[in-house]
Each structure stands twice: as structure tokens, then as C-alpha cells.
Amino acid sequence: MDIIPEHLINFEIDLQLVVYHLFQLGLAFLFALPIALNRESGSKGAGLRTFPLVALASCAFMLIAMNAYAEGDGEAEARVMYGIVTGIGFIGGGAIFKQENGASGTATAAGIWNTGAIGVAVAYQNYEIALILSLMNFCIFRFARSVKVQRAKHLDD
Fold first, then answer.
1. Within a domain: 9
2. Which of 43, 86, 129, 147 could form a disulfide with 121 if both were Cys (CB 3.0 to 4.6 A apart)?
3. In angstroms, rounded to a whole number, what is the distance separating the alpha carbons of residues 147 and 139?
4. Residues of the chain falling short of pLDDT 70
5. For the whole model, what pTM was predicted?
């Protein structure tokens, strides 16, 4: 009788795969960072921790699914992606606060959802999509607020 099961003793680590996954997760983190820094500087509830973690987790779940299921099993990967989209929607829902005159946090919730898409895009090596999503999300958070304020001032005049 073995004290330690055989599969716990004899395992191999594919260092090339480790480096590849580290690269993928690092990119997901980097693409989320500008968005996170913007939200953090604006003293928003979600910031430097939330946005990168969402991108990392989304990327990781997809990488795991891509490695765990038979190659070409798009249906299984689609179910994992569906779970990611649903889960991030739940997290984003927690960022929305209903008030008497409307709701706040909707942009943060949408940004969290977008950051999940960045992680999935990186996992599928669609770096151009991840980069575009990151830049557009950052620009919207950075510049749309001032446009909204200017528009409100103009309407009040």
C-alpha cells in the first residue's frame, strides 16, 4: 500500500507552457492596468485590484478550458465563456448603486465587463482586440466624463 498516490509523485511540468501562460496572464494584466489606474485616480470603488483581477481570472479560466477540453471542442469553451460573462455581470451588478435621481456605477460595471473581454481576447491570442478594448475603455473613462460635464453645463445655460 502506497502512502502517497502515484499521480502525486510522478508529474511533469512543461516549462514552455508555464512561460507561455505567464506571458498570456501578464498581457491580460498589462492591458487592464491603464483602466485600473484611471479608476483608482478617480477614487472609484473598483480600481487597481478589481480590474486586473477580472482580466487575469477571465484569461485564466479560458486558458484552463482550452487546455482541459479536447482541442476543437468549441462548445465546451463556449460554456466556460458564458460562465465568465455571467459571473462578471454579477460582479458588475455589485458596482451599481440605485439612487433617487438614477443610478451610479454603471460605467464602472461596464468597464469591469469590458475588462473580462480583454482577458478572454488575450487567452485566444487576439491581442489586437485586447489592445483596442483597453485603449477604448481607457479613453471613454478618461475623456467622456468631461464631455458629459460640458454638455450638462451647456444644457443649463
1. no
2. 129
3. 12
4. 1-2, 7-8, 42-45, 72, 103, 146-157
5. 0.81
